[in-house]
């Protein structure tokens, strides 16, 4: 069994911008991301796509061959990031109705916590909806304790303590390795960690969810706070960011804002049939190589106009970055700088059939932000796509 090497704490600090934090005074300590759990229409093919195009490696599996007659579930990893991809096998599986409503998407942002019971007790006391009570699951590899809290829409946070577990994922899963071999010369992995996961919520609900994360989970508002200034001529949105103590887990939350035309958030809410996860930002230490490798596999990214790179104000603002601007321009990689440093980022087109979930790639160089300076250029690019879909 090949064990996927985890980034060290030092590497993570640089990759996702960690800050110091004392867990002992935290009422709801969170160690990090446990997994992003997806429900899709065809898990077999989505798992293949994430291996071929995103360079993830299969490490565990559950399905009819292991006694799970309801669905197939593929556990994929890249560095510290774990995705679990589920698709119904049984035509009466509850996953069918979820997929019927939402299309491909994330059902569960599972978080690793050191003490499930303490977190659930605090969350319940502060108004959370406990969807699954704390319980143990055991097999020959040990015991996992978990519980789940409901969040926006049909999304939840499963809280997982796997400190007494040594198996490939959860009880019921078996070790399974990728059959697919990476193209020769491709970087060993295309991303190393999850940086942030963005939720889209309904108009007027953003502050409610910011408050939920603050009150129920002890998260704090991050310095990057964006008011109603994220607007193009046509569409607009509001966004605020909450993070756990050490910023390992960051949740930007968007709501649509009123503008001349339909916001990209409205489009999402229509096609996802309610609030849900909009995008997942993947941290890479070499965004150029990652983008090149993904393009070679057919991943489509949003474009940026040449004017973006030729804008003297932008050139002045971004100053010196690790590669010539032309290298970024030829790949449509965006750059933003703040008082702490800079970041490079790029966004894929939606990865499924509905205009809902997409990915971001992010390479941080000190900046703890989310690319606020790029929002206008980015939204204009999204609107070009939205227009082409007839949804603007
Ligand atoms: Fe993002």
Automatic annotation (TrEMBL):
Stored Pfam families: Glyoxalase, Glyoxalase_4
InterPro entries: 4OHPhenylPyrv_dOase, 4OHPhenylPyrv_dOase_C, 4OHPhenylPyrv_dOase_N, Glyas_Bleomycin-R_OHBP_Dase, Glyas_Fos-R_dOase_dom, VOC_core
Keywords, ordered alphabetically: Dioxygenase, Iron, Metal-binding, Oxidoreductase, Pyruvate, Repeat
Binding residues annotated for Fe cation, in chain numbering: 196, 279, 360
Cofactor descriptive note: Binds 1 Fe cation per subunit.
Coiled-coil portions: none
Transmembrane segments: none
Family: Belongs to the 4HPPD family.
Protein name: 4-hydroxyphenylpyruvate dioxygenase
The encoding gene: hppD
């Amino acid at each position: 069994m090949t064990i996927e090497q985890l980034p060290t704490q030092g590497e993570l600090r640089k990759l996702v911008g960690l800050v110091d934090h004392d867990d002992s005074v935290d009422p709801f300590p969170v160690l990090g991301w446990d997994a992003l759990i997806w429900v899709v229409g065809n898990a077999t093919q989505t798992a293949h796509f994430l291996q071929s195009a995103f360079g993830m490696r299969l490490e565990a599996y559950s399905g009819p061959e292991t006694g799970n007659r309801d669905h197939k579930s593929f556990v994929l990893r890249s560095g510290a990031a774990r995705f679990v991809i589920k698709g119904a096998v049984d035509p009466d599986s509850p996953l069918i109705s979820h997929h019927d409503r939402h299309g491909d998407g994330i059902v569960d942002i599972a978080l690793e916590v050191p003490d499930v019971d303490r977190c659930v007790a605090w969350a319940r006391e502060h108004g959370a909806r406990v969807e699954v009570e704390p319980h143990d699951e055991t097999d020959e590899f040990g015991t996992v304790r978990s519980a789940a809290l409901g969040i926006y829409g049909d999304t939840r946070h499963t809280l997982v303590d796997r400190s007494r577990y040594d198996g490939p994922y959860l009880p019921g899963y078996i070790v399974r390795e990728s059959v697919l071999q990476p193209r020769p010369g491709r970087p060993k992995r295309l991303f190393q960690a999850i940086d942030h996961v963005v939720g889209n919520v309904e108009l007027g609900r953003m502050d409610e969810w910011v408050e939920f994360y603050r009150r129920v989970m002890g998260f704090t508002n991050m310095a990057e706070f964006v008011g109603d200034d994220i607007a193009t001529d046509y569409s607009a949105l509001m966004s605020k960011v909450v993070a756990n103590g050490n910023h390992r887990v960051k949740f930007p939350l968007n709501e649509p804002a009123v503008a001349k035309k339909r916001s990209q958030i409205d489009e999402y809410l229509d096609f996802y049939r309610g609030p849900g996860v909009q995008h997942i930002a993947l941290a890479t230490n070499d965004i150029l190589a990652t983008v090149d490798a993904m393009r070679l596999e057919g991943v489509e990214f949003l474009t940026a106009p040449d004017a973006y790179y030729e804008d003297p104000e932008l050139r002045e603002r971004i100053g010196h970055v690790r590669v010539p601007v032309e290298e970024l321009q030829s790949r449509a990689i965006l750059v933003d700088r703040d008082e702490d440093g800079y970041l490079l980022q790029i966004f894929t087109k939606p990865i499924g059939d509905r205009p809902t979930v997409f990915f971001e790639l992010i390479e941080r160089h000190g900046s703890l932000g989310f690319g606020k300076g790029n929002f206008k250029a980015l939204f204009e690019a999204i609107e070009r796509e939205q227009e082409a879909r007839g949804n603007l």
